[in-house]
Amino acid sequence: MAFKIGLLGLGTVGAGTAEILLSPDGRHPLLQELEIYRVGVRDISRTRSLQLPENVLTTDLEAIATDPQVDIVVELIGGLEPARSLILQAIASGKHVVTANKAVISRYGQEIFEAANEKGVYVMSEAAVGGGIPVIQTLKQSLGANRIQTVIGIVNGTTNYILTRMQTEGADFAEVLADAQQLGYAEADPTADVDGLDAADKIAILASLAFGGRINLKDVYCEGIRQVSAADIDYADKLGFVIKLLAIAQDIKSKPDTEMLSIRVHPTFVPKTHPLASVNGVYNAILVEGEPIGQLMLYGRGAGAGPTASAVVSDMMNIAAILKTETVPIPHPLLSCTHQHYCKIAPMQELVTRFYARFLTLDHPGVIGKLGTCFGEHKVSLESVVQTGIHGDLAEIVVVTHDVREGNFQQAIDEIRAMESIDSIASILRVL
Ligand SMILES: NC(=O)C1=CN([C@@H]2O[C@H](COP(=O)(O)OP(=O)(O)OC[C@H]3O[C@@H](n4cnc5c(N)ncnc54)[C@H](OP(=O)(O)O)[C@@H]3O)[C@@H](O)[C@H]2O)C=CC1
Ligand SMILES: N[C@@H](CC=O)C(=O)O
Ligand code: NA
């Protein structure tokens, strides 16, 4: 029995997926039962390196999504529309769906999964987070016995690639971004990568799986890497840290019967001894802490044709395997989405974390004392304060705090910004 695949998109991930399907030798035998039936693209005249079966290419994606012959629709075009509508059309036509589209799943998950459950079809999205890393299945199935406390991830390959090369080669941001685009890591609009939006989509999906509720993406705090300078990377190094764009979801409830999560994406000082500090280049890693499992880290390539396609094809095989046995009722309790409520997300002011801040000040006596007094008045305890150098008429002062309430820290910063002896606040970063 062959399962007919309708592939929407033949770009980086689509081509990687087709390549696996066209070379089944040495892989799981089930792969031989997945047949590329139609492939939808935008520009049919474009030269493609793949040798596809004849007459499969079309620009009519809607026809694929609704074709009665198609068993599984694989959405790999990216973006919000027409991707969302095509997924919904496929579901309405009774097709199972595989997608790598975190933007659509994080925003329209409720609509999509409700439609899928009603229609009795699967929507699988392993490639949407961590590329080839099997993190979605791990959270959905393998860790189901745990109470999850924390999920911390490096989940954007493009920014990790950029930060790694800035750190190791002192490379220029724009030049490295162009390389990441060339390598097929970046989104069609790389703003989504650089400004942390892609990582926010991904941590919303992971948090939903880890904490068993829907996440409203608007509640996810998001800061990208544009402001990270060579000077900060250098100070981080001297202080024993590396800078990583972290996506963090934590259960911060104060009592067992309450629910409160902190979900955020921001560049972070990570101690060099932390397991996430050595995750470099396009590699992603997701560190999960749960009870009783303790710490678990998944590591692998988070972007690129082959690794991402590995996840896409494994989703197709999972669906094919279920369809073959036909013993499992749909919705399958471990493969389908069964979330009903929205999780409560704490405002950032309530976060308790350490901070690194770099100030440019007039080189006057007593400036350090004024900074210390102001922080003290706002209950911000300092771990270290160093005057690191002089730039023309300005002194540079670097501060690292102990754990503080973010709201208190920001109030102190507002007062400091208004001080006459402060020229500017060059950077503020959170410390893990
Ligand atoms: N690249 C990566 O490493 C990863 C990507 N993803 C996700 O996978 C998805 C695909 O990404 P990627 O392969 O990089 O994207 P690409 O831009 O490389 O490819 C997009 C493909 O979709 C087709 N397409 C786009 N819009 C339309 C449209 N409106 N109508 C018809 N065809 C269309 C394009 O056609 P044509 O070829 O004619 O231009 C192209 O074949 C995205 O959701 C992305 O977020 C997830 C993990 C990793
Ligand atoms: N643009 C994304 C691709 C994978 O999701 C990234 O860089 O991680
Ligand atoms: Na994955």
The gross shape turns out to be elongated
Number of helices: 13
Number of strands: 17
Bound molecules: NADPH dihydro-nicotinamide-adenine-dinucleotide phosphate, the ligand N[C@@H](CC=O)C(=O)O, sodium ion
> N-to-C SSE series?
EHEEHEHEHEHEHHHHEHEEEEHEHEEEHE
- Tally of distinct domains: 3
Q: Could you please say which CATH topology of the largest domain applies here?
A: Dihydrodipicolinate Reductase, domain 2
In terms of quaternary structure, the protein is single chain
Pathway: Amino-acid biosynthesis; L-threonine biosynthesis; L-threonine from L-aspartate: step 3/5; Amino-acid biosynthesis; L-methionine biosynthesis via de novo pathway; L-homoserine from L-aspartate: step 3/3
Keywords: Amino-acid biosynthesis, Methionine biosynthesis, NADP, Oxidoreductase, Sodium, Threonine biosynthesis
Catalytic activity: L-homoserine + NADP(+) = L-aspartate 4-semialdehyde + NADPH + H(+)
InterPro entries: ACT-like_dom_sf, ACT_dom, Asp/hSer_DH_NAD-bd, HDH, HDH_cat, HDH_CS, NAD(P)-bd_dom_sf
